[in-house]
Amino acid sequence: MATYVLLPGFWLGAWAWRPVADDLRGRGHDAHSLSLTGMGERAHLARPETDLETHITDVLNLIHYADLHDVVLVGHSYAGAVVVPSVADRMPDRISRLVFIDSGPLPDGMSHLEFTPPEEQSRDAERVRTEGDGWRLPPPPWRQLAAGVPGLPDDTLERLVRLSAPQPWATATAPVRLTGAWEKLPRLHVLCSFPVAEVRARIGVVPAFRHMATEGWAYRELPGWHWPMFDRPGELAGILHDAAA
Fold first, then answer.
1. Whole-number Å distance between alpha carbons of 141 and 121
2. How far is CA 168 from CA 52, 92, 226, 233, in A?
3. How far is CA 138 from the centre of its chain?
4. CA distances to 27, 108, 216 from 15, in Å
5. How far is residue 73's CA from residue 186's CA, in Å, rounded to a whole number?
6. How far is the CA of 137 from the CAs of 11, 170, 173, 227, in angstroms?
7. Whose CB has fewer CB within 10 Å in the chain, the N or C terminal residue?
8. Distance (Å) of CA 145 to CA 62, 142, 180, 226
9. pTM, 2 dp
10. Strand pairing partners for 95?
11. Cβ-count burial 56-88 (b if 16+ within 10 Å, e if not)
12. 216: left (phi over 0), alpha (psi -120 to 50) or beta
């Protein structure tokens, strides 16, 4: 039996992991899916000052107070880029493996926002200003993004629209701070919206990918939507099960 901590990306809460968590528990594992502050059932706790440090503390406290050890720490998108390496950097003795879902660890000093293209940065900042009271990024147009995604149940899309919450903008703009302690842990990268070949091509030319050039990486491709917990939950759970073997 393995112990998993499952962290969602932007706009999502623990509810997004339910099919994957249920599958893992059915295989005999212990699975903890977490709603970070301001998201999911904790949406009422969102504040302008809710930032990356807040979310790091959420995870550190879960691991500490639930007395979790040998954790397979899984992060999707934003959570993989900055939260997972930050938690592992501060509590490496409690972590057995890191899993990045369609994501990768950003270098020390880089924010999640800086990884996105300049035009996307400008567009999101404008949405924060005009639609998010100056401190929240509203959810994207899920129905438009999901158009043409095979295997996505209608009720899943409805839940996405109904349960997504605005993302506190400071979580995107705060830079990650790392000492390097996390780099000694084994890592698995589950690639969905881009193949391994694309990652390898970027490693030498895009600084944000430099941590993916080190030893200790393993890759699994799961082609599909950027959110595999919705369109391919069973296969994702199977990959996570294998990762702990």
1. 17
2. 9, 27, 21, 27
3. 17
4. 19, 30, 31
5. 11
6. 8, 10, 11, 18
7. C
8. 32, 5, 36, 10
9. 0.95
10. 71
11. bebbeebbeeeebeebbbbbbbbbbbbbbbbbb
12. left
Number of neighbours of residue 136 by Cβ within 10 angstroms:
20
**Of 120, 103, 55, the residue nearest 211 (C-alpha):** 103
Residues 6+ apart with CB under 8 A from 69: 3, 94
103 by DSSP, 3-state: which? coil
Beta strand segments in 52-135, E: 71-76, 95-101
Tokens 């694309």 sit at which residue? 198
**173 is written with which tokens?**
């703009």
Report the alpha-carbon distance of residue 55 to residue 36 in Å, rounded: 6
Sheet with 217-221: list strands edge to edge.
30-33, 3-7, 71-76, 95-101, 187-191, 217-221
Per-residue pLDDT in tens (0 to 9) along the chain, 245 residues: 999 999 999 999 999 999 999 999 999 999 999 999 999 999 999 999 999 999 999 999 999 999 999 999 999 999 999 999 999 999 999 999 999 999 999 999 999 999 888 999 999 999 999 999 999 999 999 999 999 898 788 899 999 999 999 999 999 999 999 999 999 999 999 999 988 887 777 776 666 676 776 666 789 999 999 999 999 999 999 999 999 88
